[in-house]
Amino acid sequence: MQYVTRESAFHRLHPLTKLIFAIVVVALAVLTSDTAMLAVLAGAVVVIAVASGLARDLLRQVPLLLMLAVSLLALTILTIRSGEIIGYLVPQSVPVIGGAFPVTAGAIDLALAMSLRFAAMLFAFQLLVISTQPRDLVHVMDRLRMPVDYTLMFLIALRFIPSLQLEGKRIHEAQLARAYNPGKGLAGKIRGLFPIIIPLVSNSLGKATILGLTIDLRGYRSGRRTPMRDLSPGRADVAGICCMGLVVAGYLAVLLV
Amino acid sequence: MSPETGGEIALSLRGVSYTYPGSETPALNGISLELRKGEIVFATGPTGAGKTTLCLAASGILHHEYGGTLGGAITILGKSVRDYRNMGEIGRDVGVVFDDAEAQLIFTTVEEEVASGLENLGLSREEMQQRLRAVMEATGIADLADRAPHTLSGGQKQRVAIAATIALGTKVLILDEPTAELDAESTAAVSALLRRLSGEGTGVLIVEQKIGELAAIADRMVVVKDGAIARTGVPAEMMQESVQEHPATGAARPPGPAAPLPGEGVPVISVRGLVHRYDGVVAIQGLDLEVASGEIVAVAGENGSGKTTLVKHFNGLLRPTEGSVTVDGLDAATVPIAELARHVGLVFQNPDTMLFAETVADEVAFGLKNIDPGASEEPVDAALREVGLLHRKTAYPRSLSRGERQRLAIACIVAMKPRVIVLDEPTTGLDACESGRVMDVLSRLRQDGHTIVMVTHDMRLGTEYADRIVRMEQGRIVDNSGTFEEEPCLKSCSTSPGRAPFTASTRSPN
Predict the structure, then answer these.
(1) What is the pTM for the complete model shown?
(2) Which site among A209, A237, B139, B198 is 20 to 30 Å from B469 CA-CA?
(3) ipTM for the predicted complex
């Protein structure tokens, strides 16, 4: 998840508008458990991405969301019995253990609602990150008087996720060159992580000091910043904020009625 | 500018000593050094001499960020580092380029990275834009403006880190190993830029292990040894002495079994019509290569020329998009990596990408046990003996010095007894002494019958040690004829002190 250089409509919005958009989507997703409303919310974010030509970047998260949805479904089926029983994980025709693990409508509803909620939140956050240069986000967070340490933590997390992935790949390749073979079974798999995780963590910690010094030396704690680009909001931002206001009002009305 | 000509003092260290927290041995031992505005001082010395600590002391980092015991006086532009409130305030006077370029890149595009410091200086937008463009042009990164830092090569990252620091326009610049990963062309660009900045009155302190192009532009050269300044002199004279003491005659080329000429005998590596594309980018475009058994071949070329991409095909880490790669009779396009690892060992540029075990012996045994679970300790000891680390077999691998870690990485591969050993930039970050040790190890391995392929951007290393240099440019082999004694670029390539000469061109006084 990283800034993508492109000339999209969403890119052109003021970073604050995009930040408000992400916050609104997250808030609305948290406020309801209704699957229909959550589906509309997630769908709306996808429509905005499609209209801005950023759909392909958003779709990269789909495998992660599917894995999450399947895990949630398994978890809710195993732990929740609520509402109508619509089937069994072990068919009733099986002797002795037949009828074990009933699948209830309540469990499926909850798994679906949680998956859609994650999808809406992840898509909104993804749209914000891929369309906003991190330094613009830093300026906005400064203006919102966020403590500089939190802003920098956010910035560093964004920057170093792909670097960590790359470093992990490099370490994996170096161990493969030594005929590294992740072990079999759960214990083997856990043991097999050590040759990757230990160098990854050690190397990352080694970089932390230099990273901190660089931030200080570039004056990021001085609190006096002049954005290189003009960050004044435009008409599209006003329209966007108004739309979000209407959506929030409508959403709350539906929830309260 | 020479120190005799005077000039305002940019940086001053007087009797500076420093001991790291938890250590009993001082890392700096009474160092005194002055840097004047417009002057370039080049500091060199062996690994562990205290060069990086000198950079940390001179930039006030030791005082403000590290614990330990610091003695003596350090002033920046006449002001004691103790009088600066924090590193942010020091950053307005001193720019520091650290030796780890990757860790200094905070933002998600190159342009943002260079602009990031400018936005904190209170400049107008026009001034910022102007300075941004000028710095990016001067460091040759204008075409990388929209690239994400993690997608850049080591050399490109180093240039971006230098650009982001230079953009701050500080009157003092401290650079720790700024050209370790740069090819000759990029080093020349950085040299020209530093020369220009010194001409504009910036005091520049450069710390490098290898005496190369940057030494030639310096006004003064100091040799740091055991935390103290062992020698000070005029760079041209000191380099000339180094050449006279250690003439490079090609005698470093290791003796061994007579290496067959290309085309003779059955090649141990055979590459035919290799094409490799990454995400639509052609990294290797139609390449043919043969390496004979027992040869030492250097694959040389500028950053991004496709050297590493080529050698990753030898052990299956990359598979050809088109063409074929045969290694020791195996089709490297289809044979599993674990099987290829028995025949080809790849030592990566940074040994820290592989070290994870509790002891040196366990580290070496890891690869060996992967291919032979019942292996005895004998090959582990033999490999450690080969690289001169048997006495450290119970040590924690990450506590070893950089050079020792590099030799340990080689031992990890040697223990697996592959017929071919490939090394990616085997001497990067090593001083002359450690580089020499690594190359001696390779010489012995060649005598033991291994075929060696080493990737390097240092042509001099290839000329001295390899039977043959294969030079690459933009994913193609542009010269496969032999050594490059007559190549003009050689004269500007960096070289190790005590191993090779450097055709010094002294800098004309301002």
Answers:
(1) 0.71
(2) B139
(3) 0.72
